[in-house]
């Protein structure tokens, strides 16, 4: 009986650790997603500002401490590519989050099952 209890305890600890790792991954995913969402909004604002400009307007790009003159068409293309990339990353993060949340639900069920089995073993030992 003691060996079975120890085995259940070990399984429970393993599952709880796995659940905690998944929860950390979910938190990290949310943090990265928040950063990408902010960048997406910033790039959309830049895109709108670039659309307002005349074709002859001077556009400068900040590279380190220096402002470098950039062609308007090139600037628009760069911003569009950046928005596409960020959008793709957001979709990827959403898909990853869905998988993590499903995995989290499965681990929670396993932990609950193991806890119930442990509770069932303990009263039996107390009566004996």
UniProtKB/TrEMBL annotation:
Keyword Metal-binding: no
Alphabetical list of InterPro entries matching this protein: PFD_beta-like (IPR002777), Prefoldin (IPR009053)
Keywords, sorted A to Z: Chaperone, Coiled coil
Superkingdom of the source species: Eukaryota
Coiled-coil ranges (or none): 83-117
CDD domains, per the entry: Prefoldin_6
BP GO annotations: protein folding; response to cold
Family: Belongs to the prefoldin subunit beta family.
Protein name from the UniProt record: Prefoldin subunit 6
Species for this entry: Riccia fluitans
